[in-house]
Amino acid sequence: MGGSGVKELTQVRNAVTAALQSAGLTAMTAFPAERARACAGAVAAVAVEAAQGKAMGFCNYLGEARDNGTDALREVYGKQLEGVITVDIRGRRAAECEAGSEIAAEVLLGGLPAGIRSGELRWEALAWERETGMFLRRGRLQCQAFFTAESREDGESFLDFILKGVMTN
Known about the structure:
By secondary structure, the protein is α+β, with helices and mostly antiparallel strands. Helices cover 24% and strands 42% of the residues.
C-alpha cells in the first residue's frame, strides 16, 4: 500500500459510510446478507478496494501551525492516499437498487468530507445476485484522501493522521 496505514483506510471507509447514512441510505462497512435482507429499501456496503500512499511536502512536512489554546507552534505533517472505494448497492427490487444508486452517486460525487476528493465514478449494470436473492449494482469511485497530523506540545511525539475535514473529539 505504499506506506499507508490501515487506520487511514478505515477512516476513509467510515467517512463514506457516514456520508451515505446522512443522505438517508442504509449503509454498512460489511455485507451480512441476513442483516441486509431485513432492511427496507436499498442497502450499501462500503469498502476500500485499493490504496497507495504519496508523500506531501518535503518528507510529509507541511510547515507549522499555531495552537489556538496554548499559542504554541506545532509541526504539521500530511499524507495523501489515492484509492478506489467500492459501494455495492443491493435491494429486493430493481427500483430500490436504482434509487439507492442515485443517492449514492450524489453523495460520492459531491457529499463527502473535504479530505476526500472524488474522481471518476463507474457503475456496473444492475444484476440479479442469486446468492443473496437481491438485485445488485456495484460502484467504484477513484479518489484521493488527505490526512494531517500535528506534533504534540512536547514536540517529540506526534498525533495520529486524521482525515482532513473530519471532526474529532
